[in-house]
Amino acid sequence: MFAALGEALVDLIEHPDGRYEPCLGGSVCNFTRAVARQGLPIRYLNPLSTDTFGERFVQGLRDDGVAIDPPWRSHLPTSLAVVSLGEQGVPQYVFHREAVADRDGSLDELLQRLPEAVQALHVGGLALMPPDEQRALAVIAATRARGGLVSVDANLRMVVAGSDPLRQMAYRQAVQWALAQADVVKLSDEDVAALGWHLDANDDRSLRAVAHRLLDGWQPEGHRASLVALTLGGEGAALVTAQHLVRLPVRAGIHVVDTVGAGDCFQAGLLAWLHHAGQLRATALQALGPRELTDALQHAMAAAALNVQRQGCQPPSWLETRAFVDQPVR
Q1: If DSSP states are collapsed to H, E and C, what string results for 179-209?
Q2: Which residue, 93, 75, 73, 74, is CA-closest to 83?
Q3: How far apart are CA 137 and CA 82, in angstroms?
């Protein structure tokens, strides 16, 4: 059983005519739905609101096969993100996150919902914003104690931290703490910039330098990541282990509607491929060769590519993704 800890929020997506369409979203909730559609058992850990949007979340997660029963409900409202689409469909966010449902509840309640036989926990995004990161780090520790792996998608949204430099610094530090506990890490080129690290997407040495910040561990005696995924926008994506780097370009012929949820579908596709291939163990991840890394990256990028051709986050199934991978490129 997989588990996911983080935000479930409604994206109010702007249309060219000025209308706003509400779409169920939130990075971690998107990931949860995407994993379930890839055919893996997963439990969403956070509470959902009793408001109308919360009811839609409960039904939508059930429809996708996510383990939420009995649902954990909060009387606080669902959090919101107002999404304005910029050039090439890239979303720009304004968040409303105070006193909201997915931040409700105690650590003890979260730990009670964490599966005893958890295979992997995924966390990231707004769950790492102080002071919430303390709960996230405690759930990560509990996952490790139960023998599970940890997946972290940094997915920094600096706008949530506001303009206070101290708050921004605390957010970056919290994300780095979580990354230092991860087995599988996903960083976008925007995440790398927000962390203050240098990345040249066209230079493999630069990609390795960023990845080895995590693969080598923050301290000699500390935990080390086994696999780092770097998503590079129009330059494609890469997977890096201590021994190997593979990268692939963006597939030709992709018509981008918007990129909402693309990274979440990428990470879900990556973990799904690793699970189906029997490679979702720390020792197996460290031993992945170029062929396996290429196959995993193709599947992850295919899941993201299918999603970006749809409005909002609409994750593909495992069979859809495999069929897309097998299609000849025109």
Answers
A1: HCCCCEEEEEHHHHHHCCCCCCCCCHHHHHH
A2: 93
A3: 28
Residues in Cβ contact with 223 at an 8 Å cutoff, skipping those fewer than 6 apart: 180, 181, 217
List Cβ neighbours of 241 (8 Å cut-off, separation of 6 or more): 215, 226, 227, 228, 285, 286, 288, 293
Q: Based on C-alpha coordinates, what's the Rg of the chain?
A: 18
Could you read off the pLDDT of 248-274 as tens digits, one per residue? 999 888 888 888 889 999 999 999 999
Six token digits for residue 69: 């029963």
Residue 250 to residues 108, 164, 293, 323: CA-CA distances in angstroms? 43, 36, 16, 17
Block residue for tokens 């692939």 = 248
Q: Is the pTM of this model over 0.90?
A: yes
Q: What is the CATH number of the domain that holds 247?
A: 3.40.1190.20
According to DSSP, residue 67 is labeled: B
The backbone torsions φ and ψ at residue 21, rounded to the nearest 5 degrees and listed phi first, read -105, 125
In percent, the amount of the chain with pLDDT more than 90 equals: 78
CB-CB contact of 161 with 42 (8 Å): no
Domain boundaries, position 61? 2-326
Number of domains in the chain: 1
